[in-house]
Amino acid sequence: MFQANKSRFFVPKQSFLICLISLVLIAGNVLADGNTFKISGRVLTEDGLPAPNGTVVRLENQQGALVAQRPVDTDGGFVFDSLAKGTYHLTASAKGFNPAEKDIDQRYWISDVFVRLTLTQGQIRIRETKPGMVLQADNIIPKTAKKTYEKGKKAYKSGDLPRAEEYYEQAVKEHACYPEAQVELSIVAGMRHEYEKTESALRTIVSCAPNYLPAYFRLAYLLNAEKRYHESVDVLNQALGRAPESWELHHELAVAQAGLGNYLAAEKEYREILSLTKDPPPRIHAELANVFLEQDKYSDAYQEMQAYLKAAPKGDLAPAVRKSMQEMKSAGVIGKDPE
């Protein structure tokens, strides 16, 4: 009888702690370079078709300097690999279309990123910021704290992390509810493997700026990496109460529920992800396949494996997925799900 165990098929989730400490996937897969990641994605038009010929994706660093530039393939796909941790800006452009842009922040942890860029036609549109993605200014923050915070930013840009952390800590000591400083402190502390300090800063942000969604996501990511799934569920339920349409939050909740062994609840979250985004990262299908296997839902698992291979035929999980599908066929379990 085919068993849904991790020795046969397991989709590794990149862990916050593992990425920062050893940069090794939970299942034992080593990243191509111990300190790098890749950005892949697709460029589509508003009607969902692949970007037209001649579409180019430009990748810039935090200072606005060009890192690399790629034409998209026939399916609108692109890949930038061997990237060092940091902040990047993507711009997709094509003749007759307005540019599509996306910011990528990989200062906090290192994991491969999949993005979807949509080209629009017509007049240039002013980009609107989604609610909960920007911290609101606090007019009561002391000027001295603001000056100290700016010193921290300069130290960070120069690469002096210990000095930057010192300034950020001084800024939040003067004014604990200084969200911007707490955000930067959490990032620098994470980069220096000071996870208790990272967690403390993130929890302060959630308390001081409850509408700032990235803090919830980062905190849940850290808690999941530490296998503190019950705490993660509590944090994510708070966040989803404010942003039920965020598939990224649903993903962390799915991971937490699976970690607790609540596979039916995890399945629900993965299904919600698929309903919220038309083009999810391929890994979502593979992770959902795992959840189905844990419930002996072999036919559903097989379908999700097929979906993964369709979306990423040369993906990093493709060999393991193909092997598992073959084993399921050999075992004759397809169509023999429990009632």
What distinguishing features does this structure have?
339 residues; alpha+beta; Immunoglobulin-like; Serine Threonine Protein Phosphatase 5, Tetratricopeptide repeat; 2 domains; four-stranded antiparallel sheet; three-stranded mixed sheet; 7 strands; disordered N terminus
How would you summarize this macromolecular structure in one to three sentences?
With 339 residues, the protein is an alpha+beta fold. It is built from twelve helices and seven strands.
**What is the helix tally?**
12
Q: At the third CATH level, what is the topology name of the largest domain?
A: Serine Threonine Protein Phosphatase 5, Tetratricopeptide repeat
Instruction: State Rg.
Output: 21 Å
Quaternary assembly: single chain
Number of domains: 2
Note the overall shape: globular
Query: How far apart, in Å, are the first and last alpha carbons?
Result: 17 Å
- Biggest β-sheet strands, sense, barrel: 4 strands, antiparallel
CATH C-level label of the largest domain = Mainly Alpha
**What percent of the residues sit in helical stretches (DSSP H or I)?**
40-55%
What's the helix and strand layout?
Layout: H1 16-21, E1 36-45, E2 56-61, E3 66-71, E4 77-84, E5 87-93, E6 100-105, E7 113-119, H2 143-157, H3 161-174, H4 179-191, H5 195-208, H6 213-225, H7 229-242, H8 247-259, H9 263-276, H10 283-294, H11 298-311, H12 318-331
Parallel strand pairs: 1-7
Antiparallel strand pairs: 1-4, 2-3, 2-5, 5-6
